[in-house]
Inverse folding.
């Protein structure tokens, strides 16, 4: 099948049934190019149409060619759980003030009917100021969509970068306190351990 430009696949259903498929490789790659994990696609099997997720694609390590595809059937009128990607838009006010934007979360889990499932969720972060954060609980969800992810998870935050100039200043101060190499000891200072005694004055009288 693969030598002939086809991809073996399986369509799984909620009741445990599985249907074996073979896909046109070029058509499949073209059809799923810009979809997300929460995108519902149409799968045609012998004249019958199924709504499904592309649940997994197995690829070769060397060239990334698809070896196998798993579809999961979606039934109309039955609640489903899915992970929906977050799309952040806008330039935060805090970044324009010199802050740094961090985005630790890129998707959330929701429960809804197939007809209410969004492909992705748009989140406007332009109003974030320095030392402000946006949490999962702040994300607007459509009617019929229930949040499953923890509400206190941080989606985006703006903070100032830490300034680490103190260690450098301390090192420079320590270097300034140390005597320069080869410098003569201060008058009256004791000679260093192991140092040769100072030469006697030529005019000193012997006793």
């Amino acid at each position: 099948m693969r030598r002939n430009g086809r991809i073996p696949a399986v369509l799984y259903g909620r009741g445990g049934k599985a249907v074996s498929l073979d896909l046109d490789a070029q058509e499949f790659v073209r059809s799923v190019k810009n979809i997300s994990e929460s995108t519902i696609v149409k799968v045609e099997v012998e004249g019958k149409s199924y709504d499904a997720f592309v649940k997994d694609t197995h690829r070769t390590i060397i060239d990334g060619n698809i070896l196998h595809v798993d579809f999961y059937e979606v039934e109309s009128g039955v609640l489903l759980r899915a992970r929906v990607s977050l799309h952040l838009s806008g330039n935060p006010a805090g970044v324009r003030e010199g802050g740094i934007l961090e985005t630790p979360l890129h998707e959330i889990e929701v429960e809804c009917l197939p007809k209410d499932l969004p492909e992705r969720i748009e989140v406007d972060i332009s109003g974030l100021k320095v030392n402000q954060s946006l949490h999962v609980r702040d994300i607007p969800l459509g009617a019929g969509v229930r949040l499953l992810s923890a509400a206190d998870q941080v989606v985006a935050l703006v903070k100032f970068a830490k300034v680490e100039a103190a260690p450098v200043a301390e090192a420079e101060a320590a270097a300034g306190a140390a005597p320069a190499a080869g410098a003569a000891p201060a008058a009256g200072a004791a000679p260093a351990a192991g140092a040769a005694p100072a030469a006697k004055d030529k005019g000193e009288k012997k006793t």
